[in-house]
Amino acid sequence: IKDAPVQYHLLVYHCLDVAAVADCLLASEQLNYLEPLAKQLKVKPNWLRKWLVFCIALHDLGKFFRSFQNLNCNDIKELVTEIPKYEYTIKHDALGMLLYRDIKNNLASIFPSTVLRRKISKWLEIVCSHHGKPVALNKDETIANHLIENEDDLAAKNFLIDIYNLFFNNEDINIITQIDSKDFKESSWQIAGICTLADWLGSNQDFFVYKQQPIPLEQYWHKHALPAAKKAVTNIDIKKTVAPFNSIKDQFPFIDQLTPLQQYVTDIQLTNEPQLIILEDVMGAGKTEAAMVLVHKLLSQKLGRGLYIGLPTMATSNAMYSRMQKSYEALFTTDKVSLVLAHSASALSEKFQPTISDMEQPTDANYQQQEHTASAYCNSWFTDNRKKALLADIGVGTIDQALMAVLPVKYQSLRMLGLHNKILLLDEIHAYDTYTSEILIALLKMHQRNGGSAIILSATLQQEFKEKLIAIYNNNSIEMQSDYPLATSVSTNNTTQQPIATREMVKRQTKITKLDSTQQCIDKIKQAVKQGQCVCWIRNTVADATEVYQQLQQDNEIDNQKLTLFHSRFTMADRQKIEDKVLKIFGKESTAKERQGQILIATQVVEQSLDLDFDILITDLAPIDLIIQRIGRLKRHIRDALGNIIKTANAKDQRPPAELFVLMPDPNEVTNKNWLKALLDKTEYVYQDTSIMWQTAKQLINKGKISMPDDARELIEAVYCQDYEQIPEPLQSSADNATGNTSANKSYAVSKTLKLCNGYTKASSENWHDDSIISTRVSEVETCTIILVKLHNDELQFYKWQDNKAKSMLLSQLSIPYHYWEQAQQYISDIMQAKIEEFKIKYKLKEFHNVFPLVDETLDLYNNKTGWLSIK
Predict the structure, then answer these.
(1) What is the helix, strand, coil percentage profile of the chain, to 5?
(2) In this predicted model, what pLDDT tens digit does every residue of 45-63 receive, in sequence order?
(3) pTM for the full model?
């Protein structure tokens, strides 16, 4: 560190710092890392703790190379002298493995057998790979190719021996030769995560003050490393006591009468082992509250120490976060419990203290341009709430961050560690395509193998997919029940399927009315507005939603102050404002005055989890499960004839009977393959299997109404288990293509998912990526994230500025199709491009960050009413 009284920290001290953090992490009963690992490896916990601390102390063995030391010698006479011929061509993590390979045969005094030394190399391969991904060396790579000073080689050997004597002397080293290879590979992922977390915390100068005066290692360990480590780990190891479960009122005191589903979860006796619980029920059945009762019971039975809630979209995440803010403190008796939202500017609940510090730690100088220090990586991670949510006590966000625990992305082992001993609560899982669903299955397999429980919620779940989920926790074949609603409880030796009754007030029958043109939809909107009703039209694409919104803006009969557009192509800041507005106007507490004449043009962002209620609902044709979801937003609450909420028990809705208007072509008039495209020309980009759309239209027309819950299972299975021969001949090629795409996407997901059985090695995946490159969703349209900026005093600043860079960047970004980004760049002048480069340097943005300026010549591309507009 330049201009500091202490300019450097001795390498051996840093190694002890990290080892001390690992020791404290493993000692923590709260974090509970050690016991499950010891059980998996079939060794005693105390032995494993000492062994891991010894191994992790060697994580930076490669830094003994003079080529690494050359990077920061700075002519300090106390340090080794620079030798220019030693070029730093291989990173220090790989050099560590190379160095052990060179000196292992000279370690017979502590590692007597060849088998033992070979086994040790597998453990060091994990701890040396602490910079986010496994490191591999070619078999023919030797130390002779990279040169090393004899004094460096000797120093590394002596350090290893001293560390062994300090931590592991008089222990039975040969135990590692008896550990089953399969068990070792499975546990290696957790070990890698622990080592990375220890390295990050052990690099924090707030706790580990630089020390350059040589003292004996044992003295440094006891007087410096361990005391500092205890303080550093306390930052994430705040003891929390789970409140005993009494009733649903612990979290939701406003509930006076339990729904049948809530009664079921209250009464159920949970087994004392990892388990999967699937709750299938209609909208309004209280699934979220029921799930949180299960969470409370699992926590109180010590089957988890925290929770991660994964949802399909940012909108659903925001809605769940708002609900959790009001109830999560009831799960614990302590007041230092963190609640982190993956996509909100308010990263942490202001009422409680975070367990993961929001403060950036002092950063060491990076080793070289493409190799950053542990403190730099730590800051990057912990200032990104999407990732930090996995390490919080309670995390709420999209499922993507959890899915990346089983994908070859940097620091996936830290994500996996974050999910350790957490309960996974996954909502709306029917919303995922084949690609994402396949990764989800891999995630649940990993979670079950690590001893984790999961709760899955869905209103519409296909039987075939449910069978796959059940098989993860119980491989015994069972006869699937067709009852609906249904609760399914799965553990190793038992699977129960319990039909659930439905409350009269959530039973509903919805008339289906077909609309033939966009003009008919617009006419229906105008009619609703004249009658003082609020109306929503759910369109399948952003382009279609924006187009009709702009058309309504130009209509003299429409009050623009009561017209809102809501889709995914807004910056986080603008999207949050729109979402808040939509919840206020159409949410449960909205009044007749607030709702009167309001129009919402939206995409799929409103079909899940948002507690919205429309008097009139129009929808583009969509697959049947999504139609059922959308119906859940139609006359959802009990209101009087004007639209005011009625809170009287057993009251009935006083509005006219529910009627869903569906813009769709006639399923009985299929003359060519463009049956769907002729009316909804962009929908095929989103829902590519036209045969599914046709089957949905056929079911809607034939039934003329949907009765819930009676029709739910029948409709889902009728559409998705369709008879191929029934499909009109012009649409059969679409069905064939969809089948092929489904198979291809499944294969693609399998190829992308880590082969966890191979362990934390390069053999688990051919390619490892930055998490901004790999995708958890598959789409025909490639998208990219851009950061909007604007001019202020001739300098660029974030579109939405907050109190720090991380929040400002999050609030100022949005996702758009990649071809839109390519088109937009033609509007960026050379002068503006120079300002963008200055902006990136100022805020330490990476090269791959896409920054777009909103200036005079580009203002037509984005505004806070319509979002990002396509270039025509």
Answers:
(1) 45, 15, 40
(2) 999 999 999 999 998 888 8
(3) 0.84
